[in-house]
Amino acid sequence: MNIAHKPGSIVGLPHLPSPIDYPDSPLSKALEQPILLGLFLPIQAGGWTQSTLPRTTDWSFDYNKKLTLRAEELGFDLVFALSQWLPKGGYGGVFDGQALDSFISISALAGLTNRIILISTIHVLYGPWHPLHLAKFGATLDHITGGRWGINVVTGHRAVEHEMFGWPRIEHDKRYELAAEFIEVLNRLWTDKENFSFEGQSSWKLGGGFVTPKPNFGRPVLVNATGSDAGIAFAGRYSDIVFITSPTGSDIDSALESLPAHAARVKKSATDVGRSVRTLLNPMVIARETEKEAWDYADAIVAHADHRSKNGFQSFDSDAHAWKGREGRVDPYKFVGGNIRVIGSPEQIVDQFVKLKQAGIDGLQLSFFDFAPDLEFFGDRILPLMKQAGLRL
To answer: Is this prediction's pTM over 0.70?
Structure first.
């Protein structure tokens, strides 16, 4: 039996199962924590900081594998990494373009880990991916990991990346329409018990598609990062976790002013369609035993700022909305990197984490300047204080 759908008929289907609907899913178990804890792996040269100050941070798989295994030992809930398609030289300077692919590298961790959730960032509109491929790959990874794998859905915002695949950049809101179509079809392939055919706006078609095995908990985990109206609406309808930015800059005080309303808006996008989502934020953590030592380290990072790439991750023509509120802001610590900066002693770091939770943040996807030693310091000095503060069980 083939179930056929014509353009436009798939959007607005009844609620399809999410891992959150299953109390024994890895995601549901992770969400028992007062605040999710993740690690934003540095699979790209330069990590997240545009500085030449010496450090161990490295884009190699071996380095990131060790980080992931250590994060799992420390009780972290998830890891993921960015995906990028850049021309020769990358953004310039320390961001020279050397980078592993997120889908492959995160998937390679599947058989090496036991508990931590693994999220692959994938540009679903590039290539183009066919949803039948990704549905089969995703179902396979779901079974390899016991439901610990998911997708960070990216539509792509840089013109250079679209052009690399042979077409002009797709208009911003149109990208989300196409991504919604893609995810709806993935969901059907993961859940339908009959063959499924589909023809929509995209260049791909589906004629009697069917995928086995079915995922363990309805479907893999879905994440997306966004700040636009179209992206937030997409997140509310499809995502389990929404990766957000501070609309008003990386300084913790300004971030705390704007995040409550922003987080509430994102969560409302889900409740409006009978769902729920969790918000995830990316702090750059610079922690030392004392406040002075932490700020001295931040100053050293800035003193070694790499000016060979003028705009770093914001290089190349982009129509992303998430960072628009930061335009024109003078930020002496911009070279530290991160969505926001959390700097200080262990006690001060935890105090700022508490304030972020009070501002509506449900999870922290951590970045560090020098990942391996900084992660050890975090596990030794900060994580116990998070437990004392009621942020972790």
So the answer is: yes
